[in-house]
Amino acid sequence: MSGATNNGIISPSQLPNNNNNESAASATSTPAPEVNSDDQKQNLKQVINSIDKTLGLLHQLYLTVSSFDVSFQLPLLQRINGLVMELDNMKKLSADCNIQVPMEVLNLIDEGKNPDEFTRDVLNSCIAKNQITKGKTDAFKSLRKHLLEELEQAFPDEVEAYRDIRASSAAEMRQMAQAQGMLPNGDVKIKNEP
């Protein structure tokens, strides 16, 4: 798909648009102001309700078409018009939603699979990478400890000086972190505004 970004995530604004005038106007207009979280949730609920209504209309249309008779022509046209109006409404509502969906999720849906598989696979991949990284970290800690023990036997005075330097450097870093509002792990404290 040409609207996909490098990370494989697309947003509704990247989907193909049938109205070229509208896309040209939106490309030249200024970006929309930031929408707060409650408005985004409300917009999302409206889109979800519109999707549910569209699915209901599609089901009604299916029932009408599957048992079509000439006498059902008017109800069929009414249901088609209702579906078109609801799809138009959904498109308008979705313009206010900024939801990014990974392409992998869309591919899973196209393949008829459960999109939760993507979430499970991502979590399992993160856990596996975390375990590999933890193993490497533990290996380096063990190597450092072993090297310090070997160096202490061969050069006890230099190792003692090294440990003093490390201790004073760590104390300075802690003081700087406290002065800057940083946490011991390097994160910055966020002050709550009154």
From TrEMBL:
Function, as annotated: Component of the Mediator complex, a coactivator involved in the regulated transcription of nearly all RNA polymerase II-dependent genes. Mediator functions as a bridge to convey information from gene-specific regulatory proteins to the basal RNA polymerase II transcription machinery. Mediator is recruited to promoters by direct interactions with regulatory proteins and serves as a scaffold for the assembly of a functional preinitiation complex with RNA polymerase II and the general transcription factors.
Biased composition (Polar residues): 1-10
Protein name in the entry: Mediator of RNA polymerase II transcription subunit 10
Keyword tags: Activator, Nucleus, Transcription, Transcription regulation
Quaternary organization: Component of the Mediator complex.
Source organism per UniProt: Carnegiea gigantea
Principal location class: nucleus
GO molecular function terms listed in the Swiss-Prot or TrEMBL record: transcription coregulator activity
Biological process according to GO: positive regulation of transcription by RNA polymerase II
Gene for this chain: MED10
Keyword Nucleus: yes
Cross-referenced InterPro entries: Mediator_Med10
